[in-house]
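Researcher: Final request for today, and then I'll write up notes for the group meeting. The sequence and the SMILES for flavin mononucleotide follow.
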Amino acid sequence: MTKKSFDIDLSLKFAGVKMRSPFGVASQAPFSPLAMSPVHLTEMLLKHVEAGAGFVHTPYIHCENQHPKDRLPTGRFMRAEVNGFGKLGMYALAESYRIEMRLQEGLKLIETLKSCLPADVPVIANILGPGADPDGWAEHAAKMEAAGADIIELDVSCPLPANAAGAIEAYASERIPEHAGVLLGDMPALTVAVAKATVQRCKIPVGVKMSPEVGFPRLVGFVEQLKEVGVSFVTSVNAPLSVAPPDIYNGGRSLFPGLNLNPIAPAIGPFTKFLCYRNIGTISVFVPGLDQAAVGGLVDPTHMVEAMMLGAKICEFSSGTLWKGWNLIEASTDFVKKYMHEQGYDSLEDFRGMGTRYIRPVEEVDWGLGRLTASVDDSKCKGCGICANNLCWAMKMEDAKAVVNEKNCSACSLCIAICPNKAVSLVEAKNPRTEEEIHAEVMGQILKK
Ligand SMILES: Cc1cc2nc3c(=O)[nH]c(=O)nc-3n(C[C@H](O)[C@H](O)[C@H](O)COP(=O)(O)O)c2cc1C
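Model: Predicted protein-flavin mononucleotide complex:
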């Protein structure tokens, strides 16, 4: 089948702004002095646009005018993986003050982008205002609007200001420093005041990029307040803070290539997907009617569909394009068109939010206890014994094959989750029992002992 048969229109309106596609480039502050040039950065972003991006973000633009000569952009990436589990993601360590784009470069970047981007590829200005000063943020945002930005995204979630000296004291005393980031975004009242002032000042839509440090259920009330003050969208998550593992064969030293220290560092990539989906799914359910941008751990075209099924309107690539290059945008576009063709969806609306109807209170779950049982496919079981070597009460090894004792199986599916050969599945039990029967047989006996 040729590509032409998947000629499906992916254009949409996000926060009221027209976009040719829901896939675009996340905000990424440069780790190199070269990338502070608006011309260079435009060239780089244009490559993503040529690959089909439907929008671009600026890096976070701070309101200071000049980049300090002695604190130029740099940073360090480190591979994060777990033996036997594979690649987790990366640590992306930097000092916020060094990598913030300063006002003049930021405004020039917006102007340059606007002069060469197609009309249906909007520029989202990601900004870092002065501390917790609502009017200062609003004034800063208004400058982006005047330069031509189509949408404002308040970056109250950059993790980096929290790894700077003095951050703990600043947070505890609510004296939010100039370079605020997550120190602000973890304080709903202050963030809502900043968002309200910015919404009132700007004509273009304003959104908030959420901090992963704001967990569920706290984020629900927070996002409700943002919606009430007129915020047009929320962006799922920035990078959570972590501490990289020490080098266990070298006295606990840093594993960052060429680094003498192991500072608190943001973690990016697949791990963050847990947090991204948490936010997208729960906000869809508990604060309906607010546009959402998904970012965090989206590294495969299928992730785009998953995020949209949980309610996201647009999807942003950060780690995805760091690993796979901007071709991931083209691959995702092709994948979604093919997927929609095969599933019979004519528009993105046909499947957006479809998965949210299943996000229900756990008390409503039908567990199938006594009705369902694990079943091993002998042709796939390699006899490794992993499934019989943990807290499972039903699995035993017989003649180098895993065998299920149906009576003891509670259908917990740990065996399915861990089997390296995908040899186990859940099937209807041959001799189904009710919970009352299980109680009489098992619990009753236990209580007698
Ligand atoms: C090098 C780098 C720079 C980033 N700069 C910004 C930024 O300027 N503003 C922002 O809101 N997020 C920034 N982020 C966060 C990403 O936009 C994204 O939210 C985060 O990496 C989680 O997505 P991922 O797991 O797909 O990487 C940056 C991330 C990286 C790796």
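Model: The domain at 3-358 is CATH 3.20.20.70 (TIM Barrel). The pocket of flavin mononucleotide is lined by residues 26-29, 31, 59-60, 92, 126, 155, 158, 209, 238-239, 268-269, 272, 295-298, 318-320 (CB under 6 Å).
Researcher: Thanks, that's everything.
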